[in-house]
């Protein structure tokens, strides 16, 4: 059985457009567009520009996730330490020393019993129990929901 291959031919306009400068920031090429909507000198520059734009948007999210993951690792380390096992709380100084960043967490939960807020970093909750002494407790989210 003979099958004919359908070959699609690109339609070319007879219109002529004035020279344009490529919109990719690091490209200085002037080109003649083949379509009124064309803003890049070549396909690769369009792809590169859109990849760079997406990477910029994702950079903020990646920074946030890395900070929250780092905080989670610190909370896990402190919670499993001998000091925390002995005293059942931790001072802000120790968290600062470990590099905990109090501005990064992904959820706030309110403890129904105490009314204190807890900052959630994935599986761990950091709750301020003494604002004067700056004492915190660390809970594993699965162990005890606020």
Give a brief description.
The chain is α+β, with helices and mostly antiparallel strands and 146 residues long. It is 34% helix and 19% strand. The mean pLDDT is 87.
Structure characteristics:
two-stranded antiparallel ribbon, alpha+beta, 7 strands, 146 residues, 5-stranded antiparallel sheet
Helix-strand layout with pairing:
Blueprint: E1 20-21, E2 30-31, H1 43-79, H2 82-87, E3 90-91, H3 92-98, E4 107-110, E5 117-121, E6 124-130, E7 135-140
Antiparallel strand pairs: 1-2, 3-7, 4-5, 5-6, 6-7
Description:
By secondary structure, the chain is α+β, with helices and mostly antiparallel strands. The protein has one domain (27-146). Helix content is 34%, strand content 19%. It contains three helices and seven strands; from the N terminus they run ββααβαββββ. It has helices at 43-79, 82-87, 92-98; strands spanning 20-21, 30-31, 90-91, 107-110, 117-121, 124-130, 135-140. The strands form two sheets. Strands 3-7-6-5-4 form a five-stranded antiparallel sheet. Strands 1-2 form a two-stranded antiparallel ribbon. Strand 1 (20-21) and strand 2 form a beta hairpin. The longest helix has 37 residues, at 43-79. The N and C termini lie far apart (71 Å).
Radius of gyration: 28 Å
Number of domains: 1
Quick one: how many beta strands? 7
**What does the average pLDDT come to?**
87
SSE order, one letter for each helix or strand: EEHHEHEEEE
Cα separation of the termini: 71 Å
Cα shape: rod-shaped
The SS-based structural class is: alpha+beta
Number of contiguous helices: 3
The percent range for strand residues is: 15-25%
Please give the share of residues in helix. Answer: 25-40%
Residue ranges: pLDDT <50 for 5 or more in a row? none
Q: Strand order across the biggest sheet? A: 3-7-6-5-4
Largest sheet: 5 strands, antiparallel
């Amino acid at each position: 059985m003979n099958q004919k291959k359908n070959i699609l031919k690109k339609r070319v306009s007879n219109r002529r457009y004035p020279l344009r400068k490529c919109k990719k920031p690091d490209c200085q090429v002037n080109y003649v567009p083949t379509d009124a909507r064309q803003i890049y000198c070549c396909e690769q520059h369009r792809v590169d520009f859109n990849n760079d734009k997406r990477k910029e948007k994702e950079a903020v999210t990646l920074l946030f996730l890395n900070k929250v993951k780092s905080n989670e690792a610190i909370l896990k380390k402190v919670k499993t330490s001998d000091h925390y096992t002995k005293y059942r709380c931790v001072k802000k100084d120790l968290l600062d020393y470990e590099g905990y960043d109090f501005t990064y967490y992904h959820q706030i939960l309110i403890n129904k019993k105490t009314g204190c807020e807890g900052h959630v970093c994935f599986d761990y909750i950091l709750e301020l129990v003494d604002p004067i002494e700056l004492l915190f407790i660390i809970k594993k989210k699965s162990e005890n929901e606020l």
